[in-house]
Amino acid sequence: RAFGQFWQLFLNVLIGLTNGILSTITFALGPRLVPQEDRESAGALMVLALFFGISSGATVGWQFGSNHWFGA
């Protein structure tokens, strides 16, 4: 049981670190891929997409947890 919890924690930390690194890189380099006059709009659109993704993921996760779908 403790060994399984270790792997769950390890994978959670690993996924969190890689997500943070990849998000930082894309948010730093993303606006550079568009013309200078559109960089501010591109950054705002990236933030909007990130917010929408986090919000929808949290909502779906809450629904799965509160309705006990898939045996959760």
From TrEMBL:
<feature type="transmembrane region" description="Helical">
    <location>
        <begin position="42"/>
        <end position="64"/>
    </location>
</feature>
<comment type="similarity">
    <text>Belongs to the SLC29A/ENT transporter (TC 2.A.57) family.</text>
</comment>
<dbReference type="GO" id="GO:0016020">
    <property type="term" value="C:membrane"/>
</dbReference>
<feature type="transmembrane region" description="Helical">
    <location>
        <begin position="6"/>
        <end position="30"/>
    </location>
</feature>
<keyword id="KW-0472">Membrane</keyword>
<keyword id="KW-1133">Transmembrane helix</keyword>
<dbReference type="InterPro" id="IPR002259">
    <property type="entry name" value="Eqnu_transpt"/>
</dbReference>
<keyword id="KW-0812">Transmembrane</keyword>
<feature type="domain" description="Major facilitator superfamily (MFS) profile">
    <location>
        <begin position="1"/>
        <end position="72"/>
    </location>
</feature>
<dbReference type="Pfam" id="PF01733">
    <property type="entry name" value="Nucleoside_tran"/>
</dbReference>
<dbReference type="GO" id="GO:0005337">
    <property type="term" value="F:nucleoside transmembrane transporter activity"/>
</dbReference>
<protein>
    <recommendedName>
        <fullName>Major facilitator superfamily (MFS) profile domain-containing protein</fullName>
    </recommendedName>
</protein>
<dbReference type="InterPro" id="IPR020846">
    <property type="entry name" value="MFS_dom"/>
</dbReference>
<keyword id="KW-0813">Transport</keyword>
